[in-house]
Specification:
10 helices; Cyt_c-like_dom; mainly alpha; two-stranded antiparallel sheet
């Protein structure tokens, strides 16, 4: 009778085998996957390298070293160069302190520096690019195009910005800014990137031709004088009705009171 001896395995054999298998799988995956190179590599694009250096000094304290965002600022991955050009080109960024909304302010960076930071942010993830002039130029628009732009603006924008682009209040301390004096490029970028409280209008929702008509309407509106006398800030019929009631009806009440006192004395 033959006895077959069995060798006892060490208790740690199974865990070690599992760890070795996982290690081999990770090694095989790394070998099969080509090494990815960051688009923000400073050795491949000098403008991106310049933008990275400026970003580290200007923006990283709020938006994170790699644009990942933080508790006080959103992520910049995928916002695109147009968002940076709008925010910095209108002086909204960098912000002096956190607030409900960044107001338009004096621009502190040159166009070259803004373009460099925009190039770096664009390298972090795909997003809307800085538009070329042909996308927002209003040259050659007819009166019909301007009228159509007015209809589009009143339909899509006037609920927040007022029918004349004078702006208005929003909940939680936010507001829709006035559009007077805003460049055509920045209006286009705002529509495409949806800064702060503003919704984003993609090309599918609002084609470039419609955006041109809207910009043309606003430009024409800003250039026209106020034919009705006092514009009252262009705040619409509520403000106009209030002043009409206060001055008109108030004057009638004062006159009626004066006449009544005069008749009582007589």
């Amino acid at each position: 009778m033959r006895f077959i001896s069995k060798r006892r395995r060490h208790p740690a054999a199974k865990p070690l085998t599992l760890i070795l298998a996982l290690f081999m799988m990770g090694f095989a995956y790394t070998a099969a996957t080509p090494a990815s190179q960051s688009a923000a590599d400073s050795t491949t694009n000098p403008q991106v390298a310049q933008g990275k250096a400026l970003y580290d000094v200007t923006c990283s304290s709020c938006h994170g070293l790699n644009g990942e965002g933080s508790s006080v600022a959103p992520s910049l991955i995928g916002v695109g160069a147009a968002a940076v050009d709008f925010q910095m080109g209108t002086g909204r960024m960098p912000m002096a302190k956190p607030a409900a909304q960044a107001p338009r302010n004096q621009v502190t960076y040159s166009d070259e520096e803004i373009s460099a930071i925009a190039a770096y942010v664009a390298s972090l993830g795909a997003g809307p690019a800085i538009p070329s002039a042909d996308k927002y130029s209003t040259a050659g628009l007819s009166d019909e195009d301007l009228a159509r732009g007015g209809e589009l603006f009143r339909t899509n924008c006037s609920a927040c910005h007022n029918f004349e682009g004078s702006g208005g209040a929003l909940p939680d301390g936010a507001y829709a800014p006035a559009l007077k004096g805003v460049s055509s490029k920045h209006i286009y970028e705002a529509l495409r990137t949806g800064p702060q409280q503003m919704p984003l209008f993609s090309e599918g929702a609002l084609p470039d031709e419609d955006v041109k008509d809207i910009i043309g309407y606003l430009t024409n509106l800003n250039e026209k004088p106020s034919y009705g006398g006092f514009a009252l800030g262009g705040l619409g019929p509520v403000a106009e009705g209030f002043w009409g009631w206060l001055i008109g009806i108030g004057s009638l009440v004062l006159v009626a009171t004066w006449l009544a006192k005069k008749g009582a004395r007589a």
